[in-house]
Amino acid sequence: MTPHIQTDPRSNLIGSTWMIAAMALFALEDALLKGASASLPIWQVLVLFGTGGAIVFAVVALLRGTRLFQPDVLSRPMKVRVLFEILGRLFYVLAIALTPLSSATVILQATPLVVVAGAALFFGETVGWRRWSAIVVGLIGVVIIIQPTGASFSALSILAVLGMLGFAGRDLASRAAPASLSTEVLGFYGFLCIVIAGVTYRFWEGAPIASVDPQTSLHVGGAVVMGTAAYASLMKAMRMGEVSAVTPFRYSRLLFGVGLGVVMFGERLDQTMWIGSALIVASGLYILWRGRQA
């Protein structure tokens, strides 16, 4: 039986508020992880962060009487989801650690564009020429930001693109995941994927375990709190209001991420960043609008 979702204006307003809160918390999580990576190897940041988040969701599952280990966890969509979760988390954390937080955040906003394209290609969803055109325009915005032919191009900027593609694949796999898997189960395995990503990256990074000072502990612990709270807020947003009403507020993450990058890390935004951001956000909002009209 499908739960009834209220769609009155008040529910949409509350859902939108939860969505903005979730995006603010995700942006803070990114900033804290970037801060932790300044004094710890990136693989260690991933392992500590993933372990903390997994413990939180395991406790929630225990309190709710939810089984973490069940047959549907081994379903094919979940295996695909795990793979893309590992790729998305690994490359995005590398991006926020090694490149400006603001640019990584902006590129991440292209995820919905790739999800819509993937839904058309893999799930047979109808996407007209207008939305395909918007997808192309949004991806052009990504190209403008990374400037692959410019003198200032850095291969590290590709990390955010790879992270974005990983998250898009995860979201597509989540659509096919068994409905029997609850939020806390998906959250638990999502954070375990971060641990796997960290352990895997250690072989590449080759850095030894570093001691964790009090400030770094606060960074990692704060990231765990922000990340799990953001996940819970996102679920509340999607269940409280209409998807078409609350989803556009995902783009508030761009404002929070860019703001934190400027204030905390002294980053500067150039003209190409503004142009690329505008194309990505405008394309995403147009696709949402066209989807609702359809």
Instruction: Name the overall outline.
Output: globular
What does the main sheet amount to? Answer: none
Question: Can you count the helices?
Answer: 12
| Structural class by helix and strand composition | mainly alpha
Give the assembly state of these chains.
Answer: single chain
Report the strand count. 0
> Mean of the pLDDT scores?
85
The N- to C-terminal Cα distance equals 25 Å
Count of spatially separate domains: 1
Uncertain spans:
1-6
Series of secondary-structure elements, N-terminal to C-terminal:
HHHHHHHHHHHH
* Helix percentage: over 70%
What does it look like?
The chain has 294 residues and is an all-alpha fold. It has one domain (9-293). It contains 12 helices and no strands. The chain has helices spanning 9-36, 42-64, 76-98, 101-108, 111-122, 129-146, 158-176, 183-205, 214-240, 243-246, 252-265, 271-293. The longest helix is centred in the first third of the chain and has 28 residues, at 9-36. The two termini are 25 Å apart. The model is unreliable at 1-6 (pLDDT under 50).
Task: Supply database-style keywords.
mainly alpha; 294 residues; disordered N terminus
Quick structural summary:
This protein is mainly alpha-helical and 294 residues long. Helices cover 76% and strands 0% of the residues.
